[in-house]
Amino acid sequence: MDQLETAARYDFASGHNPPSIGNACDARRMLGVPLDAHLLVIEDDAMIAWMVESLLEDLGFSSISLAASGEDAVAAALVRAPGLIISDIHLGSGMDGVTAAATIVSACSAPVIFITGYSIAQARPRVEAAVQGASLLRKPIQSAELETAIVHAFSARGAH
Q1: What torsion, rounded to 10 degrees, do the Cα atoms 56, 150, 62, 140 define?
Q2: pTM across the whole model
Q3: What SS3 class is residue 94?
Q4: Which residues on adjacent β-strands are paired with residue 137?
Q5: Distance (Å, whole) CA 15 – CA 65
Q6: In sequence order, what are the beta bridge partners of 135?
Q7: Side by side, which strands form the sheet with 84-88?
Q8: Are 136 and 116 in contact (CB under 8 A)?
Q9: How confident is the model over 74-96, as pLDDT tens digits?
Q10: Residue-wise over 74-98: b if at least 16 C-beta within 10 A, else e?
Q11: What are the sequence ranges of the domains in the chain?
Q12: Which residues on neighbouring strands pair with residue 87, listed in sequence order?
């Protein structure tokens, strides 16, 4: 049975991710992206964190850590340096995502993608001042937007 037949027979009510139907186009889009890189997702909303983690797994990443606060993110980065940081800007009380990402980047220079439910125009000046070259996405995150931001983050990092 080929991948299309397997996907066609998949029971979507099972609650599990459907089987991947990989193709050459997918591989070409992610060319140059180290899928073995360790990713750190900083997000205080558990449902959004899991959704981002699922999108990343669908793109082929397997080493992903989740942190619900800025302080937890900095601690996690000390244990294992991330190859990419994806961070919400507003994390509730305590250290926010911009401060956490800037702190981590000062030690390991990982590329950063910020996500926010607020206005990008309002967030951009602070993000650009804190983390040079960071991307900024608006919630809800779409898979294609995230994929494009990841490719850009790694290609920009390779250019330096």
Answers
A1: -20
A2: 0.81
A3: coil
A4: 115
A5: 22
A6: 113
A7: 64-67, 39-42, 84-88, 112-116, 135-138
A8: yes
A9: 999 999 999 999 999 999 899 99
A10: bebbeeeebbbbbbbbebeeebbbb
A11: 19-153
A12: 42, 114
Nearest CA to 77 out of 44, 105, 49 is that of 105
Work out the number of other CB atoms within 10 angstroms of the CB of residue 144: 10
d(CA 3, CA 12): 15
DSSP run (H or E) holding 112? strand 112-116
Helix (H/G/I), strand (E/B), else coil: 146 = helix
CATH for 19-153 is 3.40.50.2300
Q: Please give the single-letter amino acid code of residue 147.
A: E
d(CA 131, CA 135): 9
- For the chain, give the mean pLDDT: 85
Render the burial of 145-159: b for 16+ CB within 10 Å, e for the rest: bbbebbbebbeeeee
AA letter at 93? S
Q: What single letter denotes the amino acid at residue 86?
A: I
Instruction: Take residue 58 and report the two structure tokens written for it.
Output: 């669908």
**φ and ψ at 27, to 5 degrees?**
-65, -40
- Torsion angle of C-alpha atoms 149, 102, 138, 13, degrees rounded to 10: 70
